Amino acid sequence: MNIIDRFCTGFERSDSDAFADMFTEDAMYIDSVYGLCSGRDAIKALHKRCHEEGEKYRFTPILYLFNNHTDAAFEWKFEFISLMPASKGKRITAEGGSFLSLRDNRITSYREYMDSIAILLKGNVPDDRIMKFYYRKYP
Q1: pLDDT by residue (tens digit) across 12-38?
Q2: Domain residue extents for the chain
Q3: Helices (H), 1-126
Q4: N or C: which end of the chain has fewer CB within 10 A?
Q5: Considering the entire predicted model, what is its pTM?
Q6: Architecture of 3-137 per CATH?
Q7: Positive or negative, the Cα torsion across 124, 57, 59, 18?
């Protein structure tokens, strides 16, 4: 199984230790909604938070690009059932792309791109919180 398939399958599962183990100790993870996580422990905490806020994750890679086992990129579709109070039980979907840097078959950096405002709207996040998010992300 390649690193992208391992990443997607690992994200879907609620085993945050196993997910974080795919990353180097000093890895950076930039999430479109939650922002920057530095280090394996922060990545583990982010994964755990995601599984507290949602369930039945599907992270489906659509297109893969690899460069000599040092870099990878993929386009994806992401969906889950929200456990958040404002959208509990609602299926949330998003599409985006990610870039990974690799070393010794582990991820050293992960950065994703998607329409983060749209996913907040789908999650029934109140407008004032969306605006705070927007101005924090785009000062």
Answers
A1: 999 999 999 999 999 999 999 999 999
A2: 3-137
A3: 3-12, 16-20, 40-53, 116-122
A4: C
A5: 0.90
A6: Roll (3.10)
A7: positive
